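G., before I forget:
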Amino acid sequence: MAVRQRGWKKFFGFYLPLLGFTVFTLFPFYWMFITSIKPDQHLYNLRISPFWTTRPTLEHYQFLFQRTLFGHWLLNTLLVAVVSTAISLFCGILAGYALARLRFRWAGTLGTAIFITYLVPQTLLFIPLTGVVDFFHLLDTPWALIFTYPTFLIPFCTWLLMGYFKAIPRELEEYARIDGATRLQAMRKIVLPVAIPGILSAGIFAFTLSWNEFLYALVFLSSPQTKTIPVGVVSELMRGDVLFWGPLMAGALLGSVPVALIYSFFVEHYVAGLTGAVKG
Amino acid sequence: MAKQTLPESQVGVVSYPREVAAARPWSLAALRRRLATWLEDERVLFVLLVAPTLLILVAFLAIPFFWGVWLSVSDKVVGRPGAFVGLQNFFTILDSSIFRRTVQNTFVYTGIATIFKLVLGMALALLLNRHFRFNRLLRASMLLPWIVPTVLSTLAWLWIFDATYSVLNWILREIGLARLLWQLGIAPSPRGFVWLGTPGLAMGSVIAVNVWRGFPFFAITLLAGLQTIDPELHEAAEIDGAGGWARFWYITLPLLRPILTVVLLFSIIVTFADFQLVYVLTRGGPHNSTHLFATLAYQVGVISGKLGQGAAISLFMFPVLLLAVILQLRYIRRET
Amino acid sequence: MSQQVHTSSREAPGLCRRTFLQMAGAMALGAGATLALPRRAPAALRGTKLHHLQWSSFVAPADDEMRRMARDFQKATGVEVTIETINMNDLQARISTAIESGTGPDVVQMFWNWPQLYGPNLVDVDDLAEEISRRDGAYYAQLVDSCKVGGRWKAVPFCFVGNAIVYREDLFQQAGITRFPDTWDAYLEAGRKLKAMGYPIGQAFGHSLGDPPSFAYPLLWSYGGKEVDASGKVVLNSKETLEAVKFCMAFYKEALDEGGLAWDDTSNNRAYFAETISATLNGVSIYFVAKQKFPHLAKVSNHAPNPAGPAGRYHMHLTQEHAIMKYSPNVEAAKEWIRFVMQRDNFTRWMEVQEGYSLGPTPYWENIEMWEKDPKLDPYRRLAQYSRVFGYEGPPNAKAQEVFAKYIIVDMFARAIQSGDAQGAIAWAESELKKVYEA
């Protein structure tokens, strides 16, 4: 749909709302940024305008890297997010394909069952879950998160990919089968390549969620150098009644940059991927 | 097929002479062949494909979940063995005014936040679906709220709503509105509002942050849906004289319905179980007017150590949600 | 890695081992032959690893000092202690999971009366707690009520994080007040004048574990109001409570900053630095930060204890204790470590880096040299004696902790302020209390 309106109508109907959305969405980020480069004396001074600073400083960023283990946290978070996303995608692809394509009596029920795992409240289950994680001797290792994050990533991946696989014409697969390919080969060589946008969007979704997770990371990890960004930043920079606003906001910004970069590369694919899911 | 199995059977040579291996029905080559035919059976393949998912979900979700269900019908306290008490916990929490308040809060929170996320998300999707410069950049940046770690972005909001340093109050003061609102008796002081300290405002603020965080997801998902709609449909309708609103109502919306239901369902469930946001912003205050199921369950189960009651609180809505989801999914399946 | 990052520049490792040995000798002598002090067997402990979980202190150098002690302890005994610091609000999530799964830190820092809550899962430390008490004198009442569960010491008292009123002398003088008010009524009177000048008093009433309860409970007690009496019966709905609530409503309206209902522990610090309030009840953290970053404010600030009410003067400080988890395989090493931390030289240094933020567990620490350094901190010195733990004066147990976690007392005041209905707020709180105490 091309923009066909003109003049003031276009302004009020298009640019103004768009501007509104941009301000609402991005203002907190501007706020994080400006807080992260303000010296403390300016931060706490009500008499000067809070929107900019005349004395920008990098001291909060320095603090973040020199006085905390931010670099470690960043790498840990990255590792956990990448691996748990990979696992979730692997499981989601297989399960999504099976649920969408294979005839099996309990397929419908199973799909529902996988979906309703979303209803299981996380806030208290971390306590029994710790027992399970300890049973596998995973406490205080990244594996604790790598194996538990998929519990809330797989359901979404499965459902998204189910929709996508359903949208791919069955004939494509059947031609390959007539040519002598096994089911698995047909899936790998025919279905998966077509489904790549869908897989990408599921992957981005999963990556974001594991990047953000707080509670499991708080409970399962104890060594300072194994923590993830959200937990590390909160543990080290919220000290009772003194919040280190500068470094906190610097951490928040730096903590979102990697994901933001990935998004800007993939956003078109992401939208395309979801499009596939909708058709199904 | 035979070619492919060859290298594998050579591996077998390491332990068995080739002839022996071939003669045995359980040799690797034979096994592989049987596996191949076996895999052609849809039921077998199905089980194999869902196995990894089920394995992870059972180990790390089902076991803790059933433990949680047991907790909710026991008088378990941290570090002490619990005994079965039937539905006692559920009666106890129902008797608490804090819990009843929490139920109300959760519904208000989920309801209002979802409506806003839906409406704003839809509006943004419609805007982004047009062609204009920087379209791509804008799409990517609109997703930012959704991708920052929640705890950290919520801290930024805490700072925005701060009682003393609130930038919102600063703006109200600078444009002279704060004094006016104070004189009209709307704001409590000429310095502006106490965002997180007045029950209604606190709930409003918390909802605003939830909407801020959640509507980009709606927008981008719905945008994906919009792109599947054939532009010719719109053009045809336009020729027939349908206005913009009518086209939206009779073409866009019905076509978006499948994805809308799935996204709504996910969003409602996640909003219903929200924890981090309230935990960081208000911890349920002022006097419990922003407590949600999850924050109250945490307070009772973890801070007070009453795991049984905490589990009862967090599972209280489970049967209702379960029913709603099953019906909804059945409906979706019938639609498609 | 963390130790490298947090390395403090104030080290003097040589000194530490020597003093450790001296202390060990002195303690053995002082304890005498009648004491069944466990013979130290460093050889057996060598190689043991301890995991110590505590909050991220408001005063960061205190954490560095703990890590310094850990290094010295390792040199002296061969026991490696890892100090993990997390946000105070997240400690209980970790403790609960550790207990339920039977694995986690060996030594945990507890707050307030948590030992009552987790008692059955903690190692008895009677020997250690009493040994220190014989050296330094009897513990303050609040610590005894918090740590002694059914007659046994379940945690070793560590310290108080004191709170006092920090106020602007210059503003008080401008308002014509030369001496800090000694009663709540006089404080209200002063607050009226200060608020009229545009500098109200700051006080938080939000859901936050520090400042709001530290104000609400002592106010209630100083008017004679109580959650429960000594027998454990709920007696909140009383003439005394009504007086306290009514005072609070007037205090809020006429003397306090209206923002308080939303404030959490951090808000009054910021308001003080923004120079929008003239006084507030807080830990030394405000003064501490002011000295570093807002020296002009530090110069005109001073401290005072809570005013007294008809029933006396009260405080509710945050207390900290060290507990050893029952599942820990390293109980002996853990005891040795706590003993090392409580050694006079170590504990003194730890107090010194905090410049008054923490108070010792017994009156002995009221008289150490540190207090001479800054006369403005003098009021803190003897503050611990006024302090009680929530649930006072009922028998110590975990129920008061539940009332505290539900913010019932804080909310009672907040409700009254917001609704203007004192009786209604008290009745609500009473019914919630009964559900906890009579369940």
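The longest strand of chain C covers residues 49-55. Chain C touches chain A through 46 residues (CB under 8 Å).

More on Monday.
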